[in-house]
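Why does this matter for the project? Reviewers at the last site visit asked to see concrete outputs rather than summary tables. In response, this paragraph embeds two records directly. Each consists of the residue sequence and, immediately after it, the corresponding structure tokens. Nothing has been edited or filtered.
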Amino acid sequence: MNGTKTRLVGVDVCKCIAIALVLLIHASADVLTDCAPGSKNFLEALFWSAPARCAVPLFLLCSGALLLDERRALPLKKLYGKNILRLLAAMLVWAMAYQCYHLAMDHAFTAANLWQSLKEVLLFKQEFHFYYLHIMLLVYVFLPVTRNFVQHADRRMLQYFLILWFALGILYPTLRPFWPFSLLGGIPAQWLMNMTYASIGYGVLGYYLKRYPFCFGAGLGLFAGGFLFVFGATWIMSLRAGTLYAEFLEGMSVGVAGMAAGLFSMAVQGRTPCPRACAQLSRASFCIFLVHMFFLYTFNELGATVLIVGAL
């Protein structure tokens, strides 16, 4: 798929949207954490941040739609010798670059600190937004299994898998802090999937929605319902807690999953040729993800944050 006309338009569009939403999440983070819940700035920032939280799930949906496609050959040699090796190399190089940046900004650029930074990078104690790269390593390792499953499963079996994934990877973790689920202990408390393994399910969902998308109205309703849930529940719980309550903003929460699935389902129904600018931005999304925090850190050092003008 080298030409823009043969690219998956919906996937390119979703990747462009996702990278913009990642930037929006990090740009609005200071407002959400520094402003009192219920204040004008807090609500404005929450209004923009709530839909932006589907950024990482969108990336996972796109990855599933592409990497699980049976028309794309992915032998183990290519998976480990190209995909995983490139991801690991990019992670280590850029993680070290961020370490050097912080040392330089703190005027602590010494041989001892460089050695300590290198050890932290090799132990995956890296930049906070690199958690997505750590997740993708596991997603890649499981690809031979998930590819085999989706290519031999019929629609009903895919639906069965997605129901289990949603119940244990999305719904249960969302409800776990609340009564009566908070009373559960022992093995039932361990039934839920943690975020890393639940991410594999997002890939299968991306594959499923590419083949069987919801109708446009259902996708729009799912996105709108997810947004209202995330915005409203976060607002109410933050007011009660007196500080930001971020549980409903997590990528594995019900509302965020709904927004991601609805938006992705609407996007993959596009059939027009992919605009060149969209295709180019889609190709550059990984690079933008890696480097964007350099700019945000620099802007913060200069005092140039959204707090200057408010969330709007």
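We now turn to the second protein, recorded in exactly the same manner.
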Amino acid sequence: GTSNTQWTPGFNACDKSYLMPDLGSPEYVPAVLELCKRERIDGLLSFFDMDVHRLSKHVEEFEAAGVKCFIPRAETADICFDKWRTFQWLRDNGFGTAATWIDLASAKQAMAAGELAFPVYVKPRSGFGSRNTFKARNWQELEVFFGLEPDMIVQETLGGVAYDFDILNDLQGRALSVVCWRKSLSRMGETEQAVTVHDDRLTEVGLRLANLLGHAGPLDADLFLWNDKVYVLEINLRFGGGYPVSHLAGAGFPQAITEMVNGRTPTIQQGAYKAGVLMMKELH
């Protein structure tokens, strides 16, 4: 396991742990690559959006060193890390998604035309974990929130029920498994309560989404089921904070990744998980 600080709880689950340069440092990727060579690492993945985005630019270098990368290619990572590009990609590929505006002028025009109404969400184009995401109820709040960062977007508020799915693709970018669950409680972008469901509508969207993206490894996405239509809001090319509920229901993604790292065909099957498994997180 790697981190840039010794105060990393995940180190407790690692056989070995290493401190790395900061993500923004030019020494970061060379340090990770050197570590992979020194420790003869067979597989690489990340749990942090900014890290996924950074490593995606260097997948070929790691593969040349014999490392199997559960990291998306650069173009796919760019699409999912930039929420404006995510919106455009989802719209262009026929997925339901929240209408999005990239500047205040176009948002005001949409308001005047009756295409947008308060409340709306304001968030950074490249944000993660609900960082600096705000619900604006009027123009004063919208203008204040929009000025908090240089690159912000405005999104319509979706109704309906919040869902999510965890997806795992193989190293060729083909979807292996979609596990769906309904959110009961989310705090600061982290799912705290959820229950697994079987829903053909969500599964169909998940399979199509993952196969079109064609990435290698895990995917987590925020969804809404509204007026009998599935809307995709956020796409994270990593394990999401709600994966424990999928795992407890029998998803088996870590086992499948281990099998692929070892050159074996993953044994997980689509739909082979239990519905009605409830997760509740608490802090200790």
